[in-house]
Amino acid sequence: MKNKIVLITGASSGIGWATAEAFADQGANLILCGRRKERLEKLSQKLATKTLLLTFDVRDRKAVFESLGHLPKEWKNVDILINNAGNAHGLDPVQTANLDDWDAMIDGNVKGLMYVTKAILPNMLKSKKGHIINLGSIAGKEVYPNGNVYCSSKYAVDAFTQGLRIDLNPDGIKVSAIHPGLVHTEFSEVRFKGDQNRADKVYERIEALKAKDVADAILYIALAPAKVNIADLVLLPTRQANAYISNRK
Ligand code: 8X3
Description:
By secondary structure, this protein is of the alpha/beta class. It has one domain (5-235): NAD(P)-binding Rossmann-like Domain (Rossmann fold). Helices cover 42% and strands 16% of the residues. It is built from eight helices and nine strands. The chain has helices at 14-25, 37-46, 61-69, 99-127, 148-167, 187-191, 196-202, 211-223; strands at residues 5-8, 29-34, 51-55, 80-83, 130-135, 173-180, 183-184, 209-210, 232-235. It has a seven-stranded parallel sheet with strand order 3-2-1-4-5-6-9, with helices on both faces. A two-stranded parallel ribbon has the order 7-8. Helix 1 packs across helix 8 (211-223) and helix 4 (99-127) runs parallel beside helix 5 (148-167). The model has no long low-confidence stretch (mean pLDDT 97). Bound molecules: 2-hydroxyethylsulfonic acid.
């Protein structure tokens, strides 16, 4: 991992932040992308590795291609792309759900991930090597009540990952996805638009995963030998059986 170039989207919080820490510990050089510059700066100050900070929103197609299409020469050859940026907005039935929430999820979780991939691919194709690791979710494996569009977005990530693996098969580029279950981050606070009480309930009486648990699994995927691709990894807390069943004590 030493001196590899690793690009992480959504690095300014949660799983993205923890993943930056895990890869920095291994000596990787990091391109940290996020919407919040101050947070990226704070993260970069903590890391004992070279970093390049890029502030853009993955939903903004033009900004994605402008930022990633003109990487400085020494940062151009991204070895590992970690498509982490994504959020849930709302948890409502289709009948009453807010269309802006839908747009935010489809534009960010799906289209944003696709744009970033497309922007990074040319140099991976040139060098005939690289690894793309997408953050899916248990919500991309099972649909749960009121998950409708969030689940759709993560099913799309799963399908896109599989399609990408087929398309890049001749090119020697690895494509993997990790699908976490319950992870205690700002995820629910964002989903419930700052309603901290509602967010806290999601993680009550269960030992949820921490961002670092997911980061460690991403690192494990990245560290597999060249001939091995951990293609699809579902990561759950031990006390969670699936999207519906959790052992809450
Ligand atoms: C997050 C997992 O089940 O809370 O992607 O929606 S879940």
